[in-house]
Amino acid sequence: MMTQEHVPVLIVGAGAAGLTLSLLLRQQGISSVLVERRPDVSWYPRARNLNFRTLEVFRGLGLEAEVIAAGSPVSRVFRKDTLASPQREEFPAVEQALHIMDHPETLTPEPPIWYCPQSRLEPLLRASVKQRGGDVRYHTELVSFTQDSQGVTATIRDRTTGTSSVLHADYLAACDGAHSRIREALSVKAEGLGVLDEYYLFVYFRAEWRDLIRGYEADAILIDRPGIRGFFLITDADRGMFLIQYAPSQGESAWDYTAERCKELVEKGIGKPELAVEILGIEHWQPMQLVAEHFQQRRVVLVGDAAHTMPPKLGLGANTAIQSAQNLAWKLAAVIGGQAAQELLSTYQTERHPVGLLASQQSLVGPAAALLTRGSDDDLLPAEKQVPLFSLIAGYRYRSQAVLSEDAVPSSPEGIELLAQPEDLIGQPGTRVPHLWLERGGQRISTLDLLDGRFVLLTGTGGTAWRDAAAAVAEHLGIALAAYRIGAGADLLDLENGWQAKMGMSAEGAMLVRPDGFVAWRTDTSPPNPEPKLRQVMSSILCQRQQA
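Predicted structure:
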């Protein structure tokens, strides 16, 4: 007889989305079991760059310093005849394409882009999950599942021992990748171009190339000369990947690239005949552009590539996945904890589907990929339809039941409300809270440092009534709600002397920020007794309208 256990959330897939979701749920006090088919974390140097919004997620988890230490400034792209060749050509256009603004320090406390590939990020996240008491089980697969109004019953199997067990979960989070078996089992349709007409080979190899890659550890190196064309991506001092594009339209096939031929290409690309090369694996790959029509089906939610799959040309895949996990985690926690109605989970679809769809569409072209494709993918997204990178990372505005705003919803050809430039990010409900330098207890902090998994209410120096109301509402609704007054002699000192302008608030007003760092509501007025108003606002955001 199989053993049975209960867990609030079963997460399937320990990539960036699954590991981050586990940590975010843990921060909210929600336990999870995370299962992964692979025997260990990935050592492949994919999903290479993290953008500032993702670093802000890790900042809220207390992991930002570790992620920064594990990485380095944004990777560069060079072209060389061989890796050993001293001559090189840098492609500044790639870095320029990733440029967000001239003074990013006014937008975020984080670097705009930071190199920390999957091979470094996954081990770091796994270690953190375990250190915080999380339950992560590698070499364990989901065999089957059923769901009803009470939850999900799943059978999982330890692939090492062959032992099966049954888990009862309140919710199942499918973080099982682009070819999600869970999405397929749910018969959830997907929209998009599907598998693109681009063909690549990932050639994983071992070589003692330490001396050749010194100074290039974070970079991509294009080897381009007659008879060989591909990118070297570096894992560590003795492992790497050679990315090759081939063209079936010209009679080429993946079968043409045997282990012997791939070894020969890697050796030629390195350009040092005496260096021994061992081929560790060859993987055929085609990029996909697909977005699930629905991110939730009753007790099952799709996260990351299972929800929105995109080519890596703008480096948005893992970043969008992690940010979607942040959007979902606090909502799952509130529903499971009884503070919110199940309707709150529907805002995950409302808010993240347009973002995932736009990111996937915009990722059809990109500066680094263009070096390999030679412009063959330009027709996939005409220049006039491309939007600024800032808009894709943080320049969008949610409109859902989890946001209260009196502004009219403008029509948009992209189906999503976008902000064109960072200066437009001024605390509108539904946008990421502005970054502002403050001082607390003699220490300089960002407004983003106030986000530790709780709701946050920000007011001016005269906001004592708001602060008292927050304490009463938190107790009444059973939620975690912190309140801070900003200004001279208050809880937080405004180091920039401009918090009202940057937050779009009056001195008497208040701003409510959700656990994911997005503004839920703001007001310019302060009623004599703000508790009823704040209770109404919180109840509405949590979809508990009967408590208003």
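Summary: The mean pLDDT is 91.
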